[in-house]
Design a protein that fits this description.
This protein is mainly α. The N terminus is likely disordered. The radius of gyration is 21 Å and the shape is globular. The chain has one domain.
């Protein structure tokens, strides 16, 4: 296996672990007696919970993946217009999914005539009909697959018309804060084109990382208001990931590769110290997307990737993570399955209280995350997999 392939697998492992943790922390709402350090901090609370770290790590991975994705498309002979078209369509898909998922909590069941459970099941079915990886075909199957995509689009349009929100059922669907998928979409839409045009200059890309970090600081300091979601925070995570990938690329000898984990840990320590210094001016808050949160989480992401790179690339232990591999290669599928799982579970069964409390409850949530990954793997074998 080539070095580049190993590096891509390292990113897949990083993504798989992060998705496993995301499913786990997203299930904590179903438990009681959860330790404070595992939960999300409140908006006004100066605190970094474990759950507050997962999304930044995912954005870091989004950034790490961008150089490889752009390079592969250009290597296939695609021109800039074709690559930009792909970026736009991929971002649009994430924005659409985020638009729907962020509105679920506001659904007025009585006014809409549709329960949240059925709304989620139909919504996810629409997503899969549109963005499933259909086999390439030139015969009648091609028209069948196109027809299924059209059905998916019409399904989502129908949900928009059926949706009635707020207590009095008068509100329509709105973007709100775009949801997790929407925020990823905005981040990708901004960062991927910048990388495409600035990819030949590491210095320029590092300057963009610095620029978005300073935008975030300026936004929270009241010096200016940035209209982009997160005020530059999310782009700061992605560009940290881009920097990590490019620095890894430049480690082109065995000696340099052996030193990479220490180099990443060194970067992480510098970011950690900067984050604690900024705490004199800003609280640590994921909900507010403060600069302190950005620096501390980027520090953790660099340290985390240093360990994964050491284990997977330098020690060749990638097989240790085979069980959760589908979470790294079919990540979007894995993220959306819980919407259907929870909905069906609501109809089918209720867990006893002891499985939703304390340490036993935490173990249940971890097993649940593994079950979701297992379902993802099974769907993959059935040729059901989202790709945008």
């Amino acid at each position: 296996m080539s070095i580049q392939q190993n590096r891509i697998f390292s990113i897949d492992v990083f993504r798989a672990i992060t998705m496993l943790l995301m499913i786990f922390v997203n299930d904590l709402w179903s438990l009681t007696g959860v330790p404070l350090w595992l939960e999300h901090a409140r908006a006004d609370q100066d605190f970094l919970g474990f759950s507050d770290i997962v999304f930044p790590c995912f954005l870091f991975i989004v950034g790490m993946s961008i150089p490889y994705a752009m390079r592969n498309r250009l290597a296939k002979g695609e021109n800039y217009f074709q690559v930009l078209r792909h970026i736009a369509l991929r971002s649009l898909a994430l924005l659409v999914m985020g638009f729907f998922t962020v509105n679920i909590g506001d659904l007025n069941v009585e006014a809409s005539g549709l329960s949240r459970e059925w709304f989620q099941i139909i919504m996810v079915a629409g997503f899969f009909l549109i963005w499933n990886v259909y086999p390439k075909s030139e015969d009648w199957k091609k028209y069948l697959f196109n027809g299924l995509q059209l059905v998916g689009i019409l399904t989502l349009i129908l949900l928009v018309f059926l949706f009635k929100g707020d207590k009095d059922g008068t509100e329509q669907m709105t973007p709100q804060w775009w949801g997790i998928l929407g925020l990823i979409g905005w981040t990708y839409l901004i960062c991927a084109p910048i990388y495409l045009f600035a990819r030949k200059s590491l210095v320029l890309l590092l300057l963009f990382w610095f620029l978005f970090t300073m935008l975030n600081i300026a936004d929270h300091a009241g010096w200016l208001h940035t209209p982009i979601p997160g005020g530059g925070a999310f782009q700061g995570f992605a560009f940290a990931g881009i920097a990590a990938s490019l620095l890894t690329d430049r480690a082109n000898t065995p000696e340099k590769r052996r030193k990479l984990p220490l180099f990443y840990i060194g970067i992480g320590i510098l970011l950690l110290l900067t984050g604690f210094a900024l705490r004199n001016f800003f609280i640590i808050s994921k909900i507010q997307a403060t600069p302190t949160w950005v620096f501390l989480c980027n520090a953790i992401a660099f340290g985390f990737f240093a360990v994964i790179y050491f284990v997977v690339d330098l020690k060749g232990k990638g097989s240790w993570f085979s069980l959760i591999k589908p979470a790294g290669t079919s990540t979007l599928t894995c993220y959306l399955i819980p919407y259907v799982y929870y909905s069906i579970a609501t109809f089918a069964f209720t867990l006893p209280l002891f499985l939703k409390t304390g340490v036993v409850g935490l173990l249940k949530s971890f097993v649940y995350a593994l079950i979701i990954i297992g379902i993802t793997a099974l769907l993959g074998k059935l040729k059901i997999k989202l790709k945008i």
